[in-house]
Amino acid sequence: GQQVMQIPQYQHVQEGEDFTTYCNSSTTLSNIQWYKQRPGGHPVFLIQLVKSGEVKKQKRLTFQFGEAKKNSSLHITATQTTDVGTYFCVGSNYKLTFGKGTLLTVNP
Amino acid sequence: EAGVTQFPSHSVIEKGQTVTLRCDPISGHDNLYWYRRVMGKEIKFLLHFVKESKQDESGMPNNRFLAERTGGTYSTLKVQPAELEDSGVYFCASSPVGQGGRSPLHFGNGTRLTVT
Predict the structure, then answer these.
(1) CB neighbour list of residue A73: distance below 8 Å, 6 or more residues apart
(2) Which residues of A touch B56 (CB under 8 A)?
(3) What is the arithmetic mean of pLDDT over A62-91?
(4) How far apart are CA B53 and CA B68, in angstroms?
């Protein structure tokens, strides 16, 4: 079945450092979505990527979708303490498949 | 617009007991999903309703789990009898009609289930 691998599982950074999480799918995706879950909260939708090679930006967050539509990344520039949480990618084909998530902690 | 609501927020039960979780999706959202996150593992799909019909229940772990969505509004997920490995956070999510996997999911706050 469809699998989405996400790395790293954990990432601890100093405030101001950059952060990147990567997702790889075992199958070609129709789209990929990214969610953020704050500690104790629920996943909240960030963005959806649909086109091959697509790049989208939201302030300090940059999302990329690979040319083959099998991988994606989320890059945060100059992390802040408000960025802490778990970032999930969700690959969509005929069904939605979650990556394991990357837990980001930021040291002020 | 009211979000997805789940009840209860926490439930602690003993092994062998029954628990029923409820999810009220956003009004008008035909797609309703149940997911589960067991400690330290990824969020896993349980099942997907389109209105009152089960579109995909391939993620349901076994016949101790029963999901219903009578009338196509709220949904319940019953675990009977509960086992220790059922502990985790159960999330419900909804999305608008017809868009399925192309529409963002709106999640509820989840129900944290602890089976002792």
Answers:
(1) A20, A21, A22, A23, A63, A64
(2) 95
(3) 97
(4) 9
Where do the DSSP E strands lie in chain A?
A: 4-7, 10-14, 19-25, 31-37, 44-49, 55-58, 61-65, 71-76, 85-92, 96-98, 102-107
Report d(CA B100, CA B97) in Å as an integer.
Answer: 7
pLDDT at position A85 is 95
CB B115 within 8 A of CB B16: no
Q: In degrees to the nearest 10, what's the CA dihedral of B15, B92, B50, B73?
A: 90
> Nearest CA to CA, how far is A43 from chain B (Å)?
6
| The two structure tokens encoding residue B92 | 């419900």
Q: Which of B42, B45, B104 sits opposite A45 (nearest CB)?
A: B104
Specify the 3-state DSSP secondary structure of B14: coil
